[in-house]
Design brief:
Blueprint: H1 9-30, H2 54-57, E1 60-66, E2 69-75, E3 81-88, E4 94-96, E5 105-110, E6 114-119, E7 128-132, H3 152-160, H4 168-196, H5 219-223, H6 232-251, H7 267-292, H8 302-309, H9 312-330, H10 333-336, H11 338-347, H12 353-366, H13 376-386, H14 400-418, H15 420-432, H16 436-463, H17 467-475, H18 497-505, H19 511-536, H20 556-569, H21 580-590, H22 599-606, H23 617-627, H24 630-638, H25 641-647, H26 651-659, H27 663-673, H28 683-695, H29 711-760, H30 777-787, H31 795-798, H32 801-813, H33 816-827, H34 830-833, H35 835-838, H36 848-861, H37 876-882, H38 887-893, H39 901-908
Antiparallel strand pairs: 1-2, 2-3, 3-4, 5-6, 6-7
Helix pairs in contact: 4-7, 4-19, 4-29, 7-9, 9-18, 11-17, 13-16, 14-15, 14-16, 18-20, 19-20, 21-23, 21-25, 24-29, 26-28, 27-28, 29-36, 32-38
């Protein structure tokens, strides 16, 4: 056994200093340069910017510590972890755990400060790479570094029932907490959007009727609470919610989410629809209560178990929604895809026809190509860009989607069935890449290999892209029985109710939101699955019995697979036909018509009740370019059509948003939107002209557009389409970025509620406190404990007296009323709702952060007409005088987050706020 090489104190300090310097260099290499006071879209990333650390690129996945052992893992297939080495923390003896075939890294040396290893594949193969030894960072007696909040033990007890001297359990826990954070954001946004849909004409109701909905009550209790044994107060709240629920149904705005009441005289069908909608909204409300409120006095694990414990009628609705989706996909799959299937059977001579049909179902429905670890689409694009330019000819425009789909399917079969090793090799190369440029090069190299293999097949596909051929194939009968897909087809019984619940949430999200939510959830469940696998392995073998409320995560492998399916079958739903009149009203309003216009007048303008050929040009133009725009739908969900039109008249704000759109895109917008463009004018002048057009946009500009136009009329139509597209894009970017900014504060509120419940378990002074009475109480108590001695478990405050004193000043500059109102404004996205009221008063618009906080501060200082005059808030005069947000006011409002100093600083200081959250038009 190798003898432990003890360093002298001075040598140890020098080695630690060198390790810190190496780490700093690595961090600096990975960091995006900060550019203060610039809009996000104007921050230009350096060429070939590093996207990952050299440690990750070389294949090391994690260093896990358990008592006196250290376990080093590498990246395996997909997101799997390969246990590579066990290291004894006493003498640094190492034992290789991986087999020769599975090993990805070579461990060279371990000492008190550094771990040195090299990659066996890819990134600088054989070159020694240093990373710090996690067991000696803290200088504490335990080999496991403590957390700065001092909550590690409480979290372990909550999730596992006991504490551990390792960093494995807490990493698994952090992944679960990340799931709750992402759900907090999306459910908050859904609740706001549903409440926002109640906005009718001049009056908008924001009583948050969703906040009173609970999955504890059945539909019968909801519709007739007097027959229940609930308290008088609860019955009153239910009746208010029922009134709002019925009002929401009458607006027809649920049609934006694809929800549509059946057109039938059968009242049972209509009532069944309303019952399903109630269940959906009640489940959303229940999730919100689980992730957005202090649960220190209740069962914290309701989020993962309530769906299995409530009345079965809720689960029946989830089954209905999932089965409805699978039925629409599965019904007549072969007949619906017979043209493509026929072409593939003709071309893929080495495959049985039944096998091709099963693979095509896998490709179209389950979308297994998205789970390969690389992009089939990008490979095909690289192949055509470099070698197959003829396939981009205009002659293929009408069949391009079909042609590309068939090409992608052939590539999918290659990696999914024929050459699995090539796919794994490509994944490994991409993982070892350090920059986007390197990744592009890897795709280009792979495309070059594929071209020789698939050139003839691609030519064959192109030759079949003939209208007559496709028409004949469409008429032909297919002799294949749908039953051959029975083993492939999915139904609701294949999914756990948690997965079905996540699918239900996607009804209220757009395509990008669905992708972001599901991608995050899949990643987190996949990580949890890997941690559990390592913990249960014979080499590590640590206790991993989750407490009752978290047993769901024992099925993390299954849920990961199910969420892949949910991600692939979920999509933004087309607006319901029954909501068309409501949508036309919103569309005309957002284009500048007074929203007081009557339904009859809308029908008259668009000729909705008239029949005849060639008379519905304007109706079709509005449908195609406004109603069917996902950006229009987003604006109606989160804003108000009339207010959006008013905000668009603010050239200063529009110029700011245009400033975030890349110059090349501005050039294209200018050329397509302006009737007589001066392409030699400056970019500033072009942006200014576009801003002027958006400011002056009127419905009258479009009412004479011809849908079936030719010549000059067609040019005018295309210009009108471009102007509407630009207008909706600019307003979408404004609203979406403010929603994203608000999301950061939603997460902070969620964490505050959670952490307050945890601290109550270990700090007697908090036992009798209620966060709702004063949201500053947690930060205030932790600061006082530091000032009164060494009793605070919070190391952020304990180890930094100067910053602690700053937090105390901010706490004293706030009050309970101010912070309570701030919390409620965050929870209800008040900044987005009140944007029109205050954005015109801002003197300088230079960031979404500044817009958000100016509007927020105006909302906080707003006097309510029907309440007693409040005492003037400390910062009110400066706010009105300077026409911009007050920095000290931001810090005072954020003082409830002061217990977590890094989060407090990032949310309070504009230069530290993560501008990568902002969107740009690409």
């Amino acid at each position: 056994m190798a003898k432990k090489n003890k360093m002298k104190p001075r040598e140890l300090r020098e080695a630690q200093k060198k390790a810190r310097q190496l780490k700093a260099v690595e961090i600096n290499n990975n960091a995006v340069p900060e550019i203060a006071a610039m809009p996000a879209a104007e921050v230009i990333a350096p060429v070939a910017e590093k996207k990952k650390s050299s440690v990750k690129a070389a294949g090391m996945k994690s260093i896990l510590v358990s008592e006196n052992k250290m376990y080093i893992t590498s990246f395996g297939k997909g997101n799997s972890a390969v246990l590579e080495y066990e290291v004894d923390n006493n003498d640094y003896n190492k034992t290789q755990l991986s087999s020769k075939d599975n090993s990805n890294i070579e461990l060279c040396d371990v000492d008190e400060v550094n771990i040195t290893f090299s990659s066996k594949h890819g990134f600088e193969s054989g070159v020694k790479i240093n990373t710090s030894n996690p067991t000696h960072r803290s200088g504490e007696s335990s080999s496991v570094r403590g957390d700065m909040l001092g909550l590690k033990s409480e979290l372990e007890k909550r999730f596992f029932g006991k504490t551990f001297d390792d960093n494995i359990h807490i990493q698994l826990i952090y992944n679960i907490l990340d799931i709750e954070k992402i759900l907090a954001v999306y459910v908050t946004n859904i609740v706001y959007a549903l409440n926002n849909m109640l906005g009718v004409k001049d009056s908008e109701s924001y009583d948050d009727f969703m906040g009173y909905l609970s999955a504890k009550n059945t539909y019968d209790v909801f519709t007739d609470p007097d027959e229940s044994d609930l308290s008088k107060n609860i019955k009153g709240n239910i009746k208010k919610s029922l009134s709002k629920f019925n009002a929401l149904l009458k607006t027809k705005r649920l049609g934006y989410f694809g929800l549509e009441e059946p057109k039938t005289k059968d009242t049972r069908a209509s009532e069944a629809y309303k019952k399903r909608v109630y269940h959906m909204l009640a489940i959303v409300g229940q999730i919100r209560q689980c992730v957005f409120h202090d649960k220190s006095g209740a069962k914290r694990f309701d989020l993962y178990s309530f769906i299995n414990n409530i009345d079965p009628e809720y689960r029946e609705t989830l089954d209905y929604l999932v089965d409805e989706r699978f039925d629409s996909i599965n019904k007549g799959f072969i007949q619906g895809n017979k043209v493509n299937i026929s072409l593939l059977i003709d071309m893929m001579k080495g495959y049985e026809a039944d096998d091709i049909i099963r693979l095509y179902y896998d490709f179209i429905v389950l979308k297994s190509q998205k789970n390969l670890g690389f992009s089939i689409k990008k490979l095909r694009e690289k192949m055509l860009d470099e070698y197959g330019f003829r396939f981009k000819d205009k002659q293929y425009d009408s069949v391009r989607s079909k042609m590309y789909k068939l090409m992608d399917f052939l590539l999918f079969c290659n990696y999914y069935r024929n050459d699995i090793a090539a796919g794994e090799s490509l994944v490994r190369k991409l993982r070892f890449s350090m920059t986007d440029d390197e990744k592009e090069g890897i795709y280009a190299d792979e495309a070059a290999k594929l071209w020789g293999k698939f050139r003839n097949d691609f030519e064959n596909i192109a030759d079949h892209m003939n209208g007559d051929v496709i028409k004949e194939l469409g008429k032909a009968d297919m002799d294949f029985d749908e039953k051959i897909l029975d083993s492939e087809k999915k139904n609701a019984s294949d999914l756990l109710y948690f997965s079905k619940m996540i699918y239900m949430l996607t009804y209220f999200l757009d395509g990008k939101e669905i992708n972001d939510l599901l991608t995050t959830l899949i990643s987190k469940f996949d990580n949890i699955k890997e941690f559990l696998k390592i913990m249960k392995s014979s080499a590590v073998d640590v206790e991993c019995e989750l407490t009752a409320g978290y047993k769901l995560f024992n099925d993390s492998q299954r849920i990961t697979n199910e969420l892949f399916i949910v991600k692939n079958i979920a999509s933004m739903r087309k607006p319901a036909a029954s909501a068309k009149l409501t949508m036309f009203r919103d569309a005309l309003t957002i284009l500048g018509i007074d929203d007081k216009i009557t339904d009859d007048r809308i029908s008259e303008i668009l000729k909705l009740k008239e029949k005849g050929k060639g008379i519905h040009g304007l109706r079709n133009f509005i449908t195609n370019n406004v109603i069917e725009s996902s950006r229009f739908v987003y604006l109606i969900k989160y804003a108000n059509a009339q207010k959006i039109r008013e905000v668009a008249k603010n050239e200063k704000v529009v110029m700011f948003v245009l400033g975030g759109i890349p110059d090349t895109q501005i050039e294209r917008y200018y050329k397509s939107c302006v009737e007589f463009p001066d392409m030699n004018s400056s970019l500033e002048a072009k942006r200014s002209e576009l801003a002027r057009m958006i400011k002056n946009i009127r419905f009258d500009d479009f009412k004479n557009v011809k849908q079936q136009a030719k010549g000059r009329e067609n040019v005018a139509k295309e210009r009108a389409k471009a102007v509407i597209g630009l207008y909706l894009t600019v307003m979408y970017l404004l609203v979406k970025n403010l929603v994203n900014v608000n999301a950061r504060y939603v997460i902070a509120i969620h964490c505050l509620e959670r952490d307050f419940g945890l601290y109550k378990e270990i700090i007697p002074e908090l036992a009798s406190k209620n966060l709702k009475n004063d949201y500053r109480i947690l930060s205030q108590t932790l600061c006082e404990l530091c000032d009164n001695g060494d009793e605070s478990p919070n190391l952020f405050l304990k180890k930094n007296k100067r910053l602690r004193k700053c937090v105390e000043v901010d706490i004293n500059n706030a009050d309970s009323s101010m912070t309570r109102k701030y919390r409620n404004c965050i929870a209800h996205l008040t900044v987005v709702r009140e944007l029109k009221e205050y954005i015109g008063d801002i003197r300088t618009v230079d960031s979404y952060f500044s817009i958000y906080h100016y509007v927020m501060q105006r909302c906080i200082t707003k006097r309510e007409d029907d309440t007693k005059q409040e005492e003037k808030i400390k910062y009110e005069d400066d706010l009105l005088k300077n026409h911009g947000y007050t920095k000290d006011f931001v810090k005072a409002l954020n003082s409830p987050f002061g217990y977590n100093i890094p989060r407090f600083k990032n949310l309070s200081i504009e230069q530290l706020f993560d501008r990568n959250e902002y969107l740009t038009e690409k």
